[in-house]
Amino acid sequence: MPRKLVAGNWKMHGLSGDLAEASVLPAPPDVDILLCPPATLITRMVQAVEGIMVGAQDCHPSAKGAHTGDLSAAMLHDAGASYVILGHSERRTDHGETDALVRAKTEAAWSENLIAIVCIGETEAQYKTGGTLDVLRGQLARSLPDSAPAERLVIAYEPVWAIGTGLVPTAAEIAAAHQEIRTWLANSFGTETAEGIRLLYGGSVKPSNAAGIFAVPNVDGALVGGASLTAADFGPIIKALAVA
Ligand code: 13P
After folding, report:
1. Helix (H, G, I), strand (E, B) or coil at 47
2. Which residues are catalytic?
3. CATH number of the domain encompassing residue 224
4. Domain contains 22
5. How remote is the CA of residue 205 from the centroid of ligand 1, in Å?
6. Could you tell me if 76 and 56 are in contact, meaning their C-beta atoms sit under 8 angstroms apart?
């Protein structure tokens, strides 16, 4: 069993004063806690907060070059990040990111020893037509490199329609999606590797629904957006994972 992981994606939220929220989080021994603030806060969060890991929300696929405004995996590592979220649906929508680009970014992240959290998930239309598992298999096939070190890869299943909406799939739907992902990983990388890759659920995780989500088989943790911004909300989610 891999170590449980609860990750907070601050998205485009967070100024210096918000670091205080990170410094008062509970730190149960059996749970890895990760916060991914905006890149402007990575170094200060690393310096200010003990006992949690810090990650980035994106990286460029190239090691360096003429790419105004972008950040390489090496820069994020140098700033103190140990993880990077890749292929989030907001990156895919806002910046037209494709699966092929996510794959290139994953390789870039690994070349700098960052752990990649690769996000996949179906849209509302795909969900309504029963296409979820097909979509997930396709995204996995196109977004992941041909081989994967288990300790460097995390998959986040985030249904697009559940992000920021308060809507959450049923436990049975999450179970089916996570089982499908585990099976796909086993077929592609072998059973041992597949069992070591952490599978996170993301999309409207709150203190009120966290325990139910963490009880679902093959859910090794969560990728949390809005509820990761305050210790009042993120703290209970961390504690729910610790006892799951
Ligand atoms: P919410 O938890 O705000 O729905 O966001 C989920 C998400 O996108 C995490 O990456």
Report:
1. helix
2. 88, 158
3. 3.20.20.70
4. no
5. 7
6. yes
Residue 136, Cβ neighbours under 10 Å: how many? 23
Residue matched to tokens 């690994």 = 110
pLDDT in tens, 69-127: 999 999 999 999 999 999 999 999 999 999 999 999 999 999 999 999 999 999 999 99
Residue 164 lies in a domain: yes
Q: Is 159 in the pocket of ligand 1 (CB under 6 A)?
A: no
Name the residue with the closest Cα to ligand 1, atom 1.
225
Q: What is the rounded distance in angstroms from the CA atom of residue 138 to the CA atom of residue 42?
A: 32
193 within a domain of the structure (yes/no)? yes
Q: Is 9 in the pocket of ligand 1 (CB under 6 A)?
A: yes
Structural domain harbouring 192: 4-13+31-243
Which of the residues in the chain have pLDDT under 70?
none
Number of structural domains found in the chain:
1
Domain contains 200: yes
